[in-house]
Predict the structure of glutathione transferase.
Amino acid sequence: MAGGGAVKVYGAAASPYVATVLMCLEEAGAAYEVIHLDMAAREQNAPHHLARNPFGTIPAIEDGELTLFKSRAISRYVLRKYSNAGGGADLLREGNLEEAAMVDAWLEAEAHQYHPAISHIVRQCVFLPMIGSARDQRVIDEHAGKLREALRAYDALLGERAYLAGDFVSLADLAHVGFTHYLMRTEYAALVEERANVKAWWERLSARPAVKKVAALMPTADI
Amino acid sequence: MAGGGAVKVYGAAASPYVATVLMCLEEAGAAYEVIHLDMAAREQNAPHHLARNPFGTIPAIEDGELTLFKSRAISRYVLRKYSNAGGGADLLREGNLEEAAMVDAWLEAEAHQYHPAISHIVRQCVFLPMIGSARDQRVIDEHAGKLREALRAYDALLGERAYLAGDFVSLADLAHVGFTHYLMRTEYAALVEERANVKAWWERLSARPAVKKVAALMPTADI
């Protein structure tokens, strides 16, 4: 969606970090437009983008007078502002101390247990081949072991509840989608598929309209 | 503080992650007790701790019926529950969409720009020597360059406002304290001291009673 009052998202939808923001905008039912940055030309480091984000990363957004960077900060902002106003899914649960705390804990698990493993696998198996570089199998093997270990804990948890933070979908789940979307297009999809509870959770997330819509913007060529 | 209704914090105060939680408890004026885990014996991976935290990291807390892990999730929970109830400093600013968004953005900057650089320097210069291991100067040099680069952006920002998220102290600032406390006890304190605005910010943070109280629990031997 676009329009005069639309949230401007600077980046590229192929980025898992941008995808998280777009899923939140879709879940919240907010109007937005993606303003593509030319990453190959390193536009993210050009002065006009550094004015939005001093660290030169994507995504950044503009919403009226507010300029904001970092996908999680943007996601929280979007969900607080637009879900609350528009009746979108309550993905932060900030009205309940304990539920909000579990959302936060599993957002951090994504950052510190899941992402450090999966991001290397996706970089090697998906992103490097996209730009014509060869993958390093040793890096993949090392991080596949770490991801398998993390997914063991996830599987145990997801045997007890439908989503990471409880029996409700939350930003903690959505934060896992961007990289997992790409992983599932490699042979390392097996790491998810070998864990029945993780697999069922992934299928529940993949079926969400917001996730389907954003996934359609991400490169889909078989790897 | 301790007591029947006190928050139980499992870990070791020497950990920068535990220190963040303790600072939040102090800022909020909440009663707590630290229950020391024997990290040398890898007690964090024992079944009784894995029941608190499936990933075997510290800190974890118990507060009544709630068990919670991950320092940032715990920090948010503590500040929401106890600052709001007890009149502690408003370190999350969740009552203001834009201010809360800036707190979140600079928490993420800590996670993705500051921490990846400073944590290696502190590990090499402080934690490895504590256990009798030699430091690797190449690792230090590489990350000192990255930290210097991040602090350039911090210094520009802190020339415009007193704290990272605005002219108010927040969790985003406190999240930087644990590792910076140790950095300032090495020769790499110069990276902070060479930036006038960063140095002044650090001095403002260091002067907070909550920070002084927790810093006194962290190892202080000159490195």
About this structure: The interface with chain B takes residues 54-55, 57, 66, 68-74, 76-77, 80-81, 94, 97-98, 100-102, 104-105, 107-109, 111-113, 150, 153, 156-157 of chain A (CB under 8 Å).
